[in-house]
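ARCHIVE CARD
CATEGORY: sequence design from structure
SOURCE FIELD: tokenized fold
FIELD CONTENT:
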């Protein structure tokens, strides 16, 4: 009878060990928001994260593969993970874009017009390639205020050449 109890106890302990599971969450590495609908592939089969980014996997799994349309795929060793898996977004996050329309009654304030001109010039400066000197000369010529310019084209060229050398 004692042997029967011992055998039953060992069998029950083995069954409970096989049912042990870990609950993990999948989040975006930048925003720390849960990733809904991420595919998790393990030796037990395919899983999908719920609306809060959670999923459960058995402790017998050694590695997990994560994939999502908007995120880079990732293979993770389960021993290296505590309770959170981070995925890196494939999407590029851009700054806010403001679009203005022109109509009969739409007038932009002068301060906004000046700021738009400055932003345009900064974008041009950021886009130039320093190896092409001609493009740089014409761009600097447009950026220098007219009151600083000399009347003679030759003097202007010398001044621009000096600016480029200092650049």
């Amino acid at each position: 009878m004692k042997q029967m109890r011992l055998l039953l106890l060992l069998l029950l302990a083995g069954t409970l060990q096989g049912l042990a599971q870990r609950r993990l969450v999948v989040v975006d590495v930048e925003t720390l928001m849960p990733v809904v609908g991420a595919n998790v592939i393990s030796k037990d089969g395919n899983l999908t994260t719920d609306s809060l980014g959670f999923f459960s996997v058995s402790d017998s799994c050694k590695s997990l593969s994560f994939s999502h349309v908007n995120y880079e795929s990732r293979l993770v060793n389960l021993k290296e993970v505590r309770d959170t898996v981070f995925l890196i977004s494939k999407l590029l996050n851009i700054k806010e874009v403001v679009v203005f329309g022109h109509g009969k009654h739409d007038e932009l304030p002068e301060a906004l017009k000046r700021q738009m001109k400055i932003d345009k010039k900064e974008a041009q400066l950021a886009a130039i390639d320093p190896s092409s000197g001609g493009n740089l000369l014409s761009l600097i010529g447009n950026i220098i205020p007219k009151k600083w310019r000399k009347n003679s084209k030759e003097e202007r060229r010398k001044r621009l050449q000096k600016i480029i050398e200092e650049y």
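CARD ANNOTATION: Residues 2-19 form the longest helix (18 residues). The chain has a mean pLDDT of 75.
SHELF: design records, drawer C
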